[in-house]
Fold this sequence. Notes:
Elements: H1 6-20, E1 30-33, E2 35-39, E3 56-57, E4 60-61, E5 63-68, E6 73-79, E7 89-92, E8 97-102, E9 125-132, E10 145-148, E11 156-162, E12 165-166, E13 169-173, E14 196-200, E15 217-218, E16 236-242, E17 246-251, E18 258-260, E19 268-270, E20 278-283, E21 293-300, E22 310-316, E23 323-332, E24 335-344, E25 348-356, E26 363-369, E27 381-387, E28 393-403, E29 408-410, E30 414-418, E31 425-427, E32 434-438, E33 443-450, E34 455-460, E35 466-469, E36 476-484, E37 487-495
Parallel strand pairs: 2-11, 13-22
Antiparallel strand pairs: 1-7, 3-4, 5-6, 5-8, 8-10, 9-11, 12-15, 14-20, 16-19, 16-21, 17-18, 17-20, 21-22, 23-24, 24-27, 25-26, 25-28, 28-29, 28-30, 31-32, 32-35, 33-34, 33-36, 36-37
The protein binds calcium ion (2 copies).
One calcium ion (CA) binds next to strand 11.
Amino acid sequence: MHKLNPLPIRLALVLVLLAGIPCTGTAQVVSSVSASVFNDANGNVTKDGSEPGLGTTGSSRLYVYIVRNSTTLIVDSAHIPSSGLSKSMSLISGPSYTISLSTVQYAIGTNVSSTPIDRTLPSGWYHTGERRGTAASADATPDGAFTFSGLGTSPFWFGIQRGPAADAKAYLVSNTAFSTTPPAGFPDISSPSDPWMLIPMNDPALSGYTTSGSLSGSDPEDCPLASSCNTGTGTTFMIDSLYDDTRLFYDFGGTTGVQEVDLSSGPFAIADFRVNNMVIWGRKGAGATGRELGFTYALRDAAGTSGTAVAYTITTTAPLPVALLHFNASGSGQQVVLDWATASEQNNKGFEIERSTDARHWSSQGFISSKSTQGKSNIRLNYTYSDQTPEQGRNLYRLKQVDYDGRMTHSPVRVVHLSPGSQVCLFPNPASEQLFISNMQGVEQIAVYDANGRLLYRQKAAGDNAIIPFQHMNKGTYYIHLIRENGAALHTIMKQ
Length: 496
Ligand SMILES: [Ca+2]
Ligand SMILES: [Ca+2]
């Protein structure tokens, strides 16, 4: 096979280059320039000592093109060798040129107004900026193109680098790993009307990854090994979005202290991330499959490029306990009425009513089934229960919320005192011949008024019961005033 002599080819290329230079017919001033492409890990558009030259982005070769802006023609080009430093390219005098970096090959003489130079870098690669010479200021827009005028021999510098990748994480956690007590220095965001629970990000329950619960990822320049950007490695993470029912708090230390992750003005940056400084809150009722807790986050590398946001998801084995909006107990005559409401329910079978007089021994009084559909609700549901047989004196009540899978959670305890005086009984009503009053413990006087407020009758109470003669009363309304040392009660009686 005949082997070509490379020398004539090089000569032919020079001729082609010269043919591409527009001739104005006047004397031409010619200078030669070169371009250097380097891996700008820290994004400062300066080739720092440890930043190598680059001739390719992976499998893609790199080229630079010089376009004379007045004609929009490519007047010279060079391919970048592995050293990152191109051959010299020729310039004639002219007011304005643009030098561009591309992975696409174009012929000299190409008109870029009809065939624009594609400066898009392969996936994962980013321009960090361009400059001419080491002292000159960089182009404000990192886009692989730099417009300049005038001759000179200073090389052109193109910084490129690869973006980082955060690790997607998914945890399955027992809902018992969640707490209602925040770590020291963190605020308690829970309230009776909107209850929440929390898990610190360094909790051992967040397991299954080499970096446990920490945010993590890698970057080809900064931390190339898998997950080697994580807690304590000086890494910046960006919180990109929050799931419903999730809130995050981070302790920045110093004067900044604990801050809530706030996305109202875009992704939330946490520089020099530390796993010990993050607390994850979940709203009660949430957490299980279909209503997971979590957020999305990205890693930001030393050059300032944020990678794609990935999910950090926590699924709890059961929903965080039902969210009780309120729970009240009140005595009314001979009965005690309990009422409560839920803001949301997950897997809720219903509520066992428990009563005690000593806060140690509890007995079940009945069961109220959940009003939700199959235990699941995202709207307010109201419940009532009436205890017709409370004990005299102190009654303690609590709700035992029971899940379909047998798990249960107790509500706070409510106390109702039924004093003997509250059970006074007047009968019959309407009255005809006599009015009987029983259970009058503590009553000192009895007074009877007519509908106009005139006192008709007054007597001292003697014992727990009394009989008031009514046979001479006219038909109508009467008021029976039972007077105690510490107050009085008014009862309305009809005479028929
Ligand atoms: Ca640099
Ligand atoms: Ca990087």
